[in-house]
Amino acid sequence: MNQSMVLTGDRPTGQLHLGHYVGSLTQRLTLQNQYPLFVLIADTQVLNNDVIKGSHVKENILSLMRSYLACGLDPQKVIFILQSRVPALFELTQYLSNLVSLSLVMRNPTIKTENKLYNDNEQLNMGFLNYPIAQTADVILFGANLVPVGEDQVPILQFANDVIDKFHYQFNTSMFKTIEPLLSHYPRLIGIDGVNKMAKSLNNAIFLFDDEKSLKEKINKMYTDPGHIRVSDPGQVQGNVVFSFLDVFMRDKQHLEALKEHYKKGGLGDVTLKKLLFEEINIILKPIKEKEFAYSDKELLDILQSGTSYANIIAQDNMEKIRDVIFR
Ligand code: TRP
Prior knowledge:
Blueprint: E1 6-10, H1 18-31, E2 37-41, H2 57-71, E3 78-82, H3 87-97, H4 102-106, H5 109-119, H6 126-129, H7 131-141, E4 146-148, H8 154-171, E5 180-182, H9 212-221, H10 241-249, H11 253-265, H12 270-290, H13 297-326
Parallel strand pairs: 1-2, 2-3, 4-5
The chain binds tryptophan.
Tryptophan binds at residues 7-11, 40, 42, 45, 135, 138-139, 147, 149, 153.
């Protein structure tokens, strides 16, 4: 197991949006050509925050698979894993949990933030507290070392490395590789409100499968500069939501700089800018939407199932090695 391997995961919480596209999907499109790439759908983890969410998990898993393939993840290259269908993950989580103190979990910055966000410090269930351990198992069971995550998840990977150290020390082995987070170029895309990060729950997202009409409507809703009333007025680029998006999506950066100068001087209208932004985003979304129904639900589930079967073979093999180290 010397070669680098990539494993990343998503909770099946709903439709993917442009924030996912710039934050993680484009990165995976590159990674799938460079390394063995495992993409794990964390359907077990999604229950930690709210057991009721289980009611939408099936449809959200399909929606994730549909988006992955429409964006160009290649089922010949990527191994898709359904977390709940890998029994060894539960077993490894159980062994690892003996190495972790409650205070180590409670000190974790990600856990602190998410606890406030999801649990409001009440209703703190054991599943949630255990999720950093379960996520450590997700990565090390398959022998992965490179883990693309959002910035907010970096402390969870540092925690995973702590657990690996404890395991190595406790069982006098060095069987696991150190985990390295892979941060993407644009870790966070702002929402169309220009205030918060793009998120389905904040109602500020452009979804990958939004049709052109709703894409236009969403762009039209974006704030520009409230002082830019007539086209001839000088406008502000700073804090202008349309320019924030153009910064990310406009491919011709020189042209963008020229537009900014023009806007600041006056004479460049918001409508023109928004049309431009529509075109830039549409160039990305159009081919994705064309592939939205390239696979039937059955085909998507088959791909997920065959990836999971393959992952189970690796998991069982590694799990046996791990048991051998624990029970000497
Ligand atoms: N916790 C991750 C998130 O919410 C999802 C996840 C589960 C994951 N298992 C993983 C990410 C393993 C990377 C590796 O985004």
